[in-house]
Amino acid sequence: MTSTRIAVTGVLGRMGRLVTALAEEAGCVVVAALERDEHPQLGQSLAALGVLEPDAAGAEVPLGALSQGFAEQGVDVCIDFTLPAAFTTVLAACRQAGCSLVSGTTGLDASQEALLDEAAGEIPVLHATNFSLGVALLAQLSRLAAVALDEGYEIEIVEAHHGRKVDAPSGTAKTLAQTVAEARDQHLDKVARHGREGQLGTRSREEIGVHAVRGGSVVGEHTVHFLGPDERLELTHRAASREIFVRGALRCARWMAGKPPRRYTVAEVIAPNQPG
Ligand SMILES: NC(=O)c1ccc[n+]([C@@H]2O[C@H](COP(=O)([O-])OP(=O)(O)OC[C@H]3O[C@@H](n4cnc5c(N)ncnc54)[C@H](OP(=O)(O)O)[C@@H]3O)[C@@H](O)[C@H]2O)c1
Questions:
Q1: Which residue ranges in the chain fall short of pLDDT 70?
Q2: Which of 260, 264, 257 lies closest to 5, judged by CA?
Q3: CATH (domain of 9)
């Protein structure tokens, strides 16, 4: 089976390094590696940077500048784990190369989401705030519980991450909040309550609380609480390592190569016959 040719943006970041390290066993080969234009190590090979050994033929992948793109390298899929500030440039590079985009960058704003929709008219796009299969299932179970348990069961979402995470709440917590709000025909903007302090009055039934805990080495934890009369249901996912996200993203990259342009979801990759 031929390998999927991937470009890795933010290749020297925590996630980018893992994508590169696990690519081969997932059936992918790194053919382009990108960092910001001002990066001091541009032009050095990934081998010299200690990130990727040369291939059997001795070919090395140099660290390229993101704005230069990767149109010449025959890339099938770009795997992107960077920050929102890089996102417009990542998208432009994918459109120029005509390749698929698998992005896990969190904290995108509404205008960047709109850009993704626009790009999906031209290239296949899969953006997910969490590539773990367990979290995909947590979202489905939460949707089910939000409908099965009526509004007497109040919903609060609590997430925890290491202290180096720069955005809050996590993209996954936002996705879970959106999922349960939609399941109850609510507009999240109207019902979301981010943290609580002071004399707020009593909780309204339709509120969806979202809370972020930061510290230590927590890879990522999400609990959706359904707090009812005399009982509570808690659905929890705990990530033990970042590898689950990277393996999920690589599996998505294999699946996304050569797909027709549109937006895709992780749920479709897990169960291709299910709607996203
Ligand atoms: N969807 C998921 O399953 C999932 C799981 C884990 C993490 N994430 C997300 O993945 C992203 C990366 O996480 P991480 O822990 O790997 O972060 P990280 O270690 O800080 O790496 C981020 C990488 O992006 C680069 N970058 C940042 N701003 C840039 C810009 N304006 N232009 C070009 N490159 C830029 C950084 O380069 P510099 O060092 O030069 O800034 C670095 O190489 C975050 O958004 C995180 O929330 C998603």
A1: 57, 272-276
A2: 257
A3: 3.40.50.720
